[in-house]
Amino acid sequence: QVQLVESGGGLVQPGGSLRLSCAGSGSIFSIYIMGWYRQAPGKQRELVATISSGGRTNYADSVNGRFTISRDNAKDTVYLQMDSLRPEDTAVYYCNAHRPGPYQYWGQGTQVTVSS
């Protein structure tokens, strides 16, 4: 079992930056593939970025080059640095941890609003 708690969301102007954090507990954090997903009102939840236990990253085309995912296994924490934010990035952002088998966990989500 893994518990995930996100933080760092808020209101930011277009072109601004935010850094989201996701703190994990309850299991061996380093063995999990970690990811960030988001869900905008009226839309399905979508993948933003993932990072493997070895540090390999993957990004959605819509955020590639603007967002950076990283992890600190010593702190059981994964981060999402979001730069050059756009209004269309507005969503609830969720942290995810998974590994092969029935092992998938979600955080409670944190709201990101990009607006002038």
Verbal overview:
- The radius of gyration is 13 Å and the shape is globular.
- It is built from no helices and eleven strands.
- It has strands at residues 3-7, 10-12, 18-25, 33-39, 46-51, 57-59, 67-72, 77-82, 91-99, 103-106, 110-114.
- A hairpin with a 3-residue loop joins strand 9 (91-99) and strand 10 (103-106).
- Helix content is 0%, strand content 53%.
- It is an all-beta fold.
Overview in brief:
The protein has 116 residues and is mainly β. It is built from no helices and eleven strands.
What proportion of the residues form beta strands (DSSP E)? over 45%
In whole angstroms, the N-to-C terminal distance is 40 Å
Radius of gyration: 13 Å
Q: List how many beta strands DSSP finds.
A: 11
Indicate the low-confidence ranges by residue numbers: none
User: What is the overall silhouette?
Assistant: globular
Number of helices: 0
Main β sheet profile: 7 strands, mixed
Helix content: under 10%
